[in-house]
Amino acid sequence: MKRLRWYDYLTLNLFWFGLNIRNTALGSIFMPYLVGIFVPEAVKNSALGGMRAAGLVIAMLVQPAAGLLSDRSMSRFGRRRPYILIGAFFDLVFLALIAVSWNYWSLLIGVLLIQFSSNISHGPLQGLIPDLVPEDERGRASAIKAIFELLPIIIVGLTIAKLVGAGELGWAVFATGATLLIVAVITVLFVKEEPLKEKPNTPFWPPMLRVLGMLAGIAIGAVAGILGGGILGGLAGLITLIFANQVTALEVGVGVGGAVAMIVAVIAGVWAGALATLGQDARRQSSFTWWIVNRLMFLAAATSLQGSVFYFVMYAFTLNEKDSSVLTGSLTTVIGIFILFSALASGWLADRIGRKRLVGISGIVAAVGNFLLLSTIWIPNLTMVYISGTIIGLATGLFMTANWALGTDLVPAAEAGRYLGISNLAGAGAGIVGAGIGGLIADYLNGYRPGLGYFAVFASYAVLFALSAVSLIGVREAGLIAESSTSELTSQV
Predict the structure, then answer these.
(1) Fold of 203-493
(2) What is the pLDDT of residues 147-198, one digit of tens each?
(3) What are the pLDDT digits (tens) for 470-490?
């Protein structure tokens, strides 16, 4: 491989910037804004959660499939860039469809289509650094990638959110699409790929069967979570009924049941998915499996919190959709700044206090920030919202770097791609668990008492943050995990 020039680090990673501008704008601003307009107040959390969950299922299927197909591509333009350009082109088409959507179902179609097209780009994009960057330069290249992934959180809050708040949804969508197009063109023109001279024998179906196994695991976890949550929620409601009244018992039962459902869904889903994809290795490499539990719990809370904050602040401060877009954007900017700051410092901290310990601290700190945010439901206080956002942002930045570093220590070196690919799928599963269950619980309890649903689901997210730290008990750093030599599935996801 050729040594990289300084600007090669930028051109190799620039598409991550555009991709995450699109992801953040769509997930944090466009979708909640339009769903809030299209559906009744009583079901908007459920409608948004269902839309997110369906989109993530598509992402889990398309992203690895596109990556595997690009691995085998013999195109004279390179393996990755044609997929990046095609995905970006269709993103523009489907962004336009979202901009002109006229009801929930047209919006849902646009969102599902853009999840398909975006992940046509996303899967192959992940191959650029391994393809083109020498091993001793990949740390620097990955650092630039991380910055380009985090900056959009700040920029969307300062630009896209304010355009939507001013009633300029069309211009906000145009700015998102224009940014994506510009970075796609720069990537295609300035990233130099050498065409493959002979087609690799990379198998397609074994990795895809692992993807289906993880999806099946998440489904099993969701069913187990709903059943377990229903049983424990019913017991909590019965105990409350004895000492209180029927309405309070129902509220407590549903709230407890929802929290338990999320927790059980995460743990059962990860273990079922790990057993389906790793077989007996899942038990032998239990530290790795518990690391995924830790990652999934934290990300389920963090991604669900990000997706729910639009309606949360809308309720807490009695705002309309436009004003909520502005406040959500401002809060997103603050969180993004502190995520970026702490992510840059977390490598230094992890080397001094230990990766596992830092991951545990991040879960506890995020839980504290989330509990502080809960107080603003009943006593609206904008300063407290920003303080909570700052704390959660610091914790998330620490987690994102330290958790991944811990995971790379735990995986068998000879099969790192296979193991870490499974963890990427778990990240998407986090969104499915949090959005799918949380939205339903929020709407159900809000129907009994306004604000109660938000209190219940945000309390559940705080508990998930705290339990992510507790789950580290199953992660053994000493000796890490042994190299796996018995598995027949050696291809990478």
Answers:
(1) Growth Hormone; Chain: A; (1.20.1250)
(2) 898 899 999 999 999 999 999 999 999 999 999 999 999 999 999 888 887 7
(3) 989 988 864 444 333 333 322
Nearest 5°: the CA angle 164, 168, 173 is 75
Tell me if residue 195 falls in helix, strand or coil: coil
Q: Report yes or no: 391 and 366 within 8 Å, Cβ to Cβ.
A: yes
- Angstrom CA distances, 63 to 50, 109, 296, 441, stand at 20, 18, 19, 30
| pLDDT for the residue 256 | 60
Query: Where is average pLDDT lowest: 29-33, 51-55, 200-204, 255-259?
Result: 255-259
Question: Does 1-202 match 203-493 in CATH topology?
Answer: yes
Q: Give the pLDDT of residue 32.
A: 96
The burial class, CB within 10 Å (0-12 / 13-18 / 19+), for 227 is middle
Task: Give the separation between CA 155 and CA 283, rounded to whole angstroms.
Answer: 43
3-state SS class at 91: helix
Lowest average pLDDT, out of 213-217, 398-402, 485-489, goes to 485-489
Residue 324 in contact with residue 310, Cβ under 8 Å? yes
Taking residue 203's Cβ as centre, other Cβ atoms within 10 Å add up to 14
Residue that the structure tokens 């899942």 belong to: 282
CB 357 within 8 Å of CB 293: no
Cα 281 to Cα 173: distance, rounded to the nearest angstrom: 45
CATH of domain 1-202: 1.20.1250.20
What is the pLDDT averaged over residues 235-241? 46
Q: Which two structure tokens, joined as six digits, stand for 205?
A: 């179906």
Per-domain residue ranges of the chain? 1-202, 203-493
Q: Which one, of 267, 262, 265, 261, lies nearest residue 289 by Cα?
A: 267
- Written as one string, the DSSP assignment of 283-317 is HHTHHHHHHHHHHHHHHHHHHHHHHHHHHHHHHHT
Give the pair of three-digit tokens for residue 224: 């187990």
The C-alpha atoms of residue 216 and residue 271 are separated, in whole angstroms, by 11
In Å, the largest CA–CA distance within the chain is 75
| 468's tokens | 């992510």
DSSP character for 203?
-
Q: pLDDT over 70 for what percent of the chain?
A: 76
Confidence (pLDDT) at 265:
65
For the chain, how big is the Rg over CA atoms in Å?
A: 22
Look up residue 429 and give its two tokens.
């599963």
Q: Residue 99 has what pLDDT?
A: 96
Count H helices and E strands in the chain, helices first: 18, 0
